[in-house]
Amino acid sequence: MLKAFFGFTHFPFKKDIEKIFISAQLAYLQKRCAHFLETQGIALLTGEVGSGKTTFMRHFLDSLNHNSYQCFYFSQTVRTARSFFRALAVELGLLPKFFIEDVSRQVKTELVNIFRKQKLLPILIIDEAQNLSDMVLEEIRLLTNFKMDSKNYLSVFLLGHPALKARLKLSPYTALRQRISFSYHLTGLEQDEVDPYLIHRLKLAGRSKSVFTSEAVTLLFNYSKGLPRVINTLAHEALFLAASKEKNMVDESLIEKIVQEWETL
Predict the structure, then answer these.
(1) For the chain, how many structural domains are there in total?
(2) Confidence class of residue 147 from pLDDT cuts 50, 70 and 90?
(3) Whole-prediction pTM value?
(4) Domain end: 186, 210, 234, which one?
């Protein structure tokens, strides 16, 4: 009903939209990440739930020259050093050995092989990193400098909630913190970016003009605090409500209706 009423080719605020909206913050972050790969080490990217950390990282990795980098992404929570190395071995396409001494050596050998023989820089992206144990965080620190020489054989992106950044400020993590080349906190869209963001998503779904009034856009920002995931959810539900009422525009009353339904959860 919704797609037919508005003439969409697909839902504009669901995950099937591939081309992301590049806000001023994301444009800056992309440059910082590119520079980080030149210096290597560990990068820390934090943000509130729904701020777009994972979406941005996938976009950034897709933009890289795959003749220069090999990326390994995983978001599973690992609590022990052995489970971390076994999971990483699987990501590297290896059959992981059983004992930690063997599997860690296996992983490190393969990373050196990728760097020296294949002439690629391995990039490890760990999502939901706030769930990692102290033991695993220490292994990640050691992994970025395991050859004890002037070369880095691995770059690591740690993605997590704000609690991760606060945790790493504590004294037990001083050594890890010193290995972090740069840290960035993603906050979401600015108020004047919400309307262009909505139009961007609508155009990708086949609609050339916005269907949100200026008042509705303001409410979307106020309720979402600029977080893209919240904007997407509110906008999608408001579009459904508009279609069910046969209204061509989403106004502030529809946004308020959706928010009221949310607040009963």
Answers:
(1) 2
(2) low
(3) 0.90
(4) 186
